[in-house]
Amino acid sequence: MHGLTVRWSLENAPEGVEEALSAYVEATSHPKFTGRPGLRFKTWRMRAGEWFEGCYVFETPAERDAFQEEFSKTAADSPGSQIVGSAPVLIEPCDIVAVAEGGAGFLAAPSFR
C-alpha cells in the first residue's frame, strides 16, 4: 500500500487550534474522505502544541501520487492550513509495510474525543 503524510506544525498556532482542528475533522474532513475511491483509509493524528497530521493510505501509487500533486498545489490555502495559520511543514510519500487489526477490532469514527 502507498502512504502519504501531511503534517502541520502547531508550535505557533493560535490558542484553541486543537479543538478547531478536531471539530473540522469531525464535521467536514472525515465525511469528505469516507468512501473516497482509491483511498484505503485515512487517520488524523495530533500532539497538542506540537503537530497535526493526516496519514493517507492509497490502493495504488498512481492514486497517491495524483492526490499528492493536486493537494500540493493548494496546500497553503487548505482548510487545515487556514485553521493552523500556516502551510504544512511536511508532505511526504511512504510505503505501508503492514497493517494489523488488534483483538479490540478496527473502529472508524469521525471523533474519538
TrEMBL record:
Top-rank lineage group of the source organism: Bacteria
Family annotation (Gene3D superfamilies): 3.30.70.100
The protein, known as: Monooxygenase
Organism listed in the record: Nocardioides jiangsuensis
